[in-house]
Structures are given as structure tokens and as C-alpha cells.
Amino acid sequence: MRLLIWDLPTRLFHWLLVLCVVGAFVTVKIGGNALQYHFWFGYAVLTLLLFRLIWGLVGGHYSRFLHFPLRPTQLRAYLSGHTSLHLGHNPLGSLSVLALLAALLFQSVSGLFANDDIASEGPLTIWISKSLSDTITHLHHENEAILLGLISLHLAAILFYAWFKRENLVGPMLHGHKTVATPLSATPLKTSVDGRGQRIIALILLLTCAGIVYWITQLKP
């Protein structure tokens, strides 16, 4: 049985976030004039994160945070190997997603207040003291290691599932579907809604989030 798990807005969010995070990392390592692109990638990441937070409330079934299997009983069952079928994120995957979203949100927001002590600074540094900006800049740099660790775990999990469990996690995030061989009586199977109306709502939300981020970056005392 082939089910739609990840709606198009969720899939586009995922891959756009990958591109923007890679772009932000590369441009900050290049430095110099490339830092302007680093800021733009950061604004794009913040826009995508705001969209995902809202989409996690109104999006497709498996994209909603409400349907993440995060109860302690579900986590214990998963770790012990006695668990039901998880068509969306499994308990550990759900925790990983939330941790990544939180770390990326901190990184993108802190970047608004950060500076490089030379010529580049976030658009909201004018609202705080230099010492506070320096502290936030330090945390911004420290969080990079946390982000790299979480991303590494994410990639390791994908490889583990591909090699040892023979489960392709990348494919469904490209085309949205999973093929389920489990009997229908084993678990209540649901599909995500992904019609034209849903996609129009997603586009409006994304544009609204982009407008909010632009407004934030233009704030003046």
C-alpha cells in the first residue's frame, strides 16, 4: 500500500533548509564579502523555520508536531524494540527534528545580534550594547558545533537505516510516499492532505513569514 506521508510544502521546506544551511556555512567560512550572503542565507533559514513552526500546527498529518511520537512510553517501546509502525518520524527521529529546529532557530536569531568585530554585524545589534552583542556572538559560534553534531547524527541515522534496516528515508522526502507492507489491521494508517488549497495556504504562510523576517531586519530604534 502506497501512502502519502510528506506533503509538498514539508518536502520543499526540508530541501530549501538544507541548501540554506550549507550556503550559510560555506559563506561564513569564506568570510570577507561573502558574509553578506551569509546574512541572506540566515534570513532565509529564519523564514523557513517560522514557516515550519506554523506548518507543524496546520500542515499534513505527519508534519504536525501533535502527531510526533514523543510520549515516554513510545520512546521506551521504540528503544526496547517493541514498537508499532511509524510512518512519519519515529520517536528518536522526532526528538532529532525538534533539536535541529531549536538549534537552527537559536543560530538564526542570535545571528541578528552578532558581529565580527570588523565590518559585519547583524541588523539588530543597534538595539543592544556591544558587550551583549559580543556575548551573543560567542554563543552563536559555540552553537555551530552543536549544529554540526546534530546534523552528523541526522546523517548517520539515515545511513544506519539504509544499511542495516534496509529502509530508505531520503526517497519519501523527495516524492513524499512510503510503501507499507504491514497488514491494514496492524495500525491505523493515515495519509497526508496535499491538495491545491493546502499548497496555496503554505505559499501564503511562507510569504508572510518572509515579510515578517524582512520587517524584523529593518527595525530601527
TrEMBL record:
* Keyword Transmembrane helix listed: yes
Q: Which UniProt keywords are given for this protein, alphabetically ordered? A: Cell membrane, Membrane, Transmembrane, Transmembrane helix
Task: Tell me a GO cellular component.
Answer: plasma membrane
Q: How does it sit in the membrane?
A: Multi-pass membrane protein
Q: What is this protein called?
A: Cytochrome B
Which residue intervals define the domain Cytochrome b561 bacterial/Ni-hydrogenase in the entry?
A: 6-176
Organism of derivation: Parvibium lacunae
An annotated GO BP: respiratory electron transport chain
MF annotations from Gene Ontology: electron transfer activity; heme binding
Cite the Pfam families for this sequence.
Ni_hydr_CYTB (PF01292)
